[in-house]
Specification:
The structure holds two protein chains of two kinds.
Chain A lengths: L3 E4 L2 E4 L5 E7 L5 E8 L3 E10 L2 E4 L6 E7 L2 E6 L8 E8 L6 E3 L3 E5 L1
Parallel strand pairs in A: 2-11
Antiparallel strand pairs in A: 1-3, 3-8, 4-5, 4-9, 5-6, 7-8, 9-10, 9-11
Chain B lengths: L2 E3 L4 E5 L4 E3 L2 E3 L5 E8 L6 E7 L7 E2 L2 E6 L4 E6 L8 E9 L8 E2 L3 E6 L1
Parallel strand pairs in B: 2-12
Antiparallel strand pairs in B: 1-4, 3-9, 5-6, 5-10, 7-8, 8-9, 10-11, 10-12
The chains are: A mainly beta, B mainly beta.
Chain lengths: 112, 116
């Protein structure tokens, strides 16, 4: 398995506060993704990156921003957390067009 | 836009028996990948099996096999000789071969219970 580490693993935060989730990979994979998982919705794409400083929006990007200043790190930021952003967040990486996606362990975020 | 539908929110199987999880998808593309992922209570997403749309032969990984019907846009997962460790959420996923995005599009999942 690819070395993908998400931090933190769990977080409780208050409405209106900024939150940053980190995804760190040691495999030098080109593509990185942030998904959120909610009951009844499966996993949905928030943002993705196809290289350093190259990012784009996914299906549910409102309220989220990302940054990728190094190959190994992909940050997801909630500028002002809302209760609707309570979810489990997954990072995934992939090397090339014909390769598998590998997932991190997930981060459970609760906004109160 | 592509969509993936899993019509069975929950399924149950007796240990050592066989169970089939259903998945249908919608796409206008001719080349793509299909996947089944397993998510046990640990929350880790584990790739179970992968199918390339251009391959007619159904993929098989030990006790897991798929029935890929391209014309019907159907991609079911068969688990043979079910074990207690197979209890998990199972997600069907689609990935396009076109463009640079390459993200997975997931169904809503099927929760599989295995009875001893």
């Amino acid at each position: 398995d690819a070395g993908i580490t998400q931090s933190p693993r769990h977080k409780v935060t208050e409405t209106g506060t900024p939150v940053t989730l980190r995804c760190h990979q040691t495999e030098n994979h080109r593509y990185m993704y942030w998904y959120r998982q909610d009951p009844g919705h499966g996993l949905r794409l928030i943002h993705y990156s196809y290289g350093v400083k190259d990012t784009d929006k996914g299906e549910v990007s409102d309220g989220y921003s990302v940054s990728r200043s190094k190959t190994e790190d992909f940050l997801l930021t909630l500028e002002s957390a809302t209760s609707s952003q309570t979810s489990v967040y997954f990072c995934a990486t992939r090397q090339g067009s014909n390769t598998e996606a590998f997932f991190g362990q997930g981060t459970r975020l609760t906004v109160v | 836009a592509q969509t993936v539908t899993q019509s069975q929110p929950e399924m149950s199987v007796q240990e050592a028996e066989t169970v089939t999880l259903s998945c249908t998808y919608d796409t206008s593309e001719s080349d793509y990948y299909l996947f089944w992922y397993k998510q046990p209570p640990s929350r880790q997403m584990i790739l179970v099996i992968r199918q390339e749309a251009y391959k007619q032969q159904n993929a098989t990984e030990n006790r897991f096999s798929v029935n890929f019907q391209k014309a019907a846009k159907s991609f079911s997962l068969k688990i043979s000789d079910s074990q207690l460790g197979d209890a998990a959420m199972y997600f069907c996923a689609y990935r396009s071969m076109e463009g640079s995005q390459g993200n997975l599009i997931f169904g809503k999942g099927t929760k599989l219970s295995v009875k001893p």
